[in-house]
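pinging the channel bc i need a second pair of eyes. not urgent but kinda urgent?? the chain im working w is below, pasted from the shared doc
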Amino acid sequence: MTKSNNSIPVVTRQLLVPFILVTSLFSLWGFANDITNPMVRAFSKVLLMSNFEGSLVQFAFYGGYFAMAFVAAYFIKKFSYKTGILLGLALYATGAFLFYPSSLGHAFWPFLLSYFILTCGLSFLETSANPYILSMGDAATATRRLNLAQAFNPMGSLLGMFTAQNFILARLNSATFEEREALRAVDPEAFELLRQSDLAVIRNPYVVIGAVVFVFFLVFLFTKMPKSQSDGDFNLKDTFSRLLKNKRYYEGVIAQFFYVGVQIMCWTFIIHYAEMELGIPNDTAQLYNIVAMSIFCVSRFICTYLLKYVRPGVLLKCLAFGGIALVLGVIFIKGMLGLYCLIGISACMSLMFPTIYGIALDGIGQDAEFGAAGLIMAILGGSVMPPLQALMIDQESILGLSGVRFSFILPLICFIVIAIYGHRNRDLAR
């Protein structure tokens, strides 16, 4: 008699310590993601840039994921998951420490370079950690195991949001965009002092997280970890050929692209929606982002539990339909109710990344490292989509709607794509 999935342990006792250590990394990159989202608005204000120019933070941040994913996969295949994690932590810490010299200059591009290096590290971490978690136990519980590990990601995200609100947004000078422009015109030296002070406020939390990441580097360096990826030679051409013939996989990459896009758009532009539609100040608006992430965190644990009883594709489709309904509320309902719909979207997004990941990699075997890299490259959606939405937000009105409300047509499209992927994989039982 075979065991049911419910009777198979998600993590064995022998692998519990390595599982906990690797799971802690999910919180680390969650922190980086969500301390950064509010920086789009912060940099726009401090450096007097448009919403589109400020959104280049996201372009640089998620561009690092895209640029390094297959390099990371090749590196991991050549060496080990642990070595990939160590290099990822080293790059993460280096990018964070580079915020110090970046803050001493007068330009935006050093910050973009710092973000890019930091997220090259995150690309190594995610390319290593996600398939590593999948490998730490029975294949029948792999998706549940990844969902459990991913459930700790929003805890880091909440800390990142809290840090952004209390140690950055609340400590920036309260001068408005218009007041800063006027000061620059009449007293450039005073404006420069104000800008340098605010850039130092932005810098300090990143330097601190760089030190924390370095401590994690030392812990992993001196801890024995299991080697779980496939060994031996491999043919890159054959690997890509198999992946491109796997419809569930390449459709998963497409779905992941749109999922990351919708996640970053909804979390980045909560602040813009609250300020531009309701006149709520940035630091107060960030509270709504924290509420959204809290909902996301709770929903992630609930959905992880539901996966014991509901097929992943079915749950993914249902949550995507919930996201569609709430985005329509954001677009067509004015006032606080529209903002509440935007916050509520986080409950629907909670399951999506790890579930798409698990479905796409189901049965992929020896191609797991490069399959994971393709899914990490799909994080490019977080680089491409926010600037497109920011261009819409910069418009005063589109088709009778405010630019910020109309811009949520992009998240609507993303949820439709995700719903289709969930529907097409509704029969997969894991």
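so The mean pLDDT is 86. and The chain has 22 helices and two strands. — does that match what u expected or am i reading it wrong
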